[in-house]
Amino acid sequence: MTIVVVTFNRSGYLSRLLESIAAMSTPAARVIVVDNASTDDTSEVAAAAPLPSSVLRYERLETNTGGAGGFSAGVELAMEEGAEWIWVMDDDVEVVPDALAKLSPWTEKFQCLHGRREDADGTPYFWQHRMVQSLGVPMLTTSDPFAGGESANANVGCFEGMLIHRDIVARIGLPDPRFFITWDDTVYGWLASQHTEVGYVNEFVLRRARPLKTVPLGSHQVNTANDLFRFHLMRNRAYIAKYFARYGTFRRIPFAAGTAFTFAKEIYRCLVAEKSLKGLRPLVKGLLAGRKIHADRTWQPMPALEGA
Questions:
Q1: Under a CB-based contact definition with an 8 Å cutoff, are residues 247 and 197 in contact?
Q2: Of 156, 174, 208, which residue sits at a domain end?
Q3: 284 is in which domain, residue-wise?
Q4: Within 10 Å of residue 306's Cβ, how many Cβ atoms?
Q5: Are strands 131-132 and 137-138 parallel, antiparallel or unpaired?
Q6: Can you say how many angstroms the Cα of residue 273 is from the centroid of all Cα atoms in its chain?
Q7: Which residues are paired to 220 by β-bridges?
Q8: Number of domains in the chain
Q9: Does any domain span residue 166?
Q10: How many angstroms separate the CA atoms of 126 and 112, rounded?
Q11: How does pLDDT run across 62-72, given as a tens digit for each residue?
Q12: N or C, where is the chain less crowded by C-beta within 10 Å?
């Protein structure tokens, strides 16, 4: 089992995560930390981690490639080292001690799976593990995904805990660094679901260490956002459309409705969280940038890996 962690200027959280990894009852064979050109003491924290040098590999990128670029680089390194299973996570979570013991039995059933996560306050994180494919947006539901059993079928992914087998990575290629941030893990899980059943299992294996500010959205809550997120949220809709088109599932009118819904949700978030419409500008800029991606006839998806 190889754990891939992507970090950027959050050395305090990274330290806690590496300590939790070192304390697991079933140890990881390899831990790869991808540093997205941090300017804090991340390199020193990695060097001081309570993990043997034979286990921990620290790779610092020359530039900040966003979460998408970091995970793409980390998964590539894991594949080059021959990892059979790759467990990806951000730097602001902690691993529960028996996480791998909990997940291991499920690897007999799934080649791509996600365990559950607690928020910083100890409450279960509500993950929207299903997407309305025609709209390209997460399915809004309050139902218990485990009401019918200890696992549920997902058709998206989350890089805060996705566990994926190398055979699936070989088929769908590396995570697409062009997303930079947001939608990258959603699409990667969707790509996996085109080749295998993606499982969501009723096992708590991660705990978020960083509290998040949220705003209400009906019966749900959504995190607050910044302008960088807003731009990429709208721009990257075009990448989703490109991948859907490659698999023959893109439907222009429903997808446009999903984009309109996403835009409206962000306007609501701006009004509730910031009491202003300053976030409108990056949303519009993202939409305009997405139009260029839509029109790019040379665009290609991430290629399958050798031996797929």
A1: no
A2: 208
A3: 214-295
A4: 7
A5: antiparallel
A6: 24
A7: 217
A8: 2
A9: yes
A10: 19
A11: 999 999 999 99
A12: C
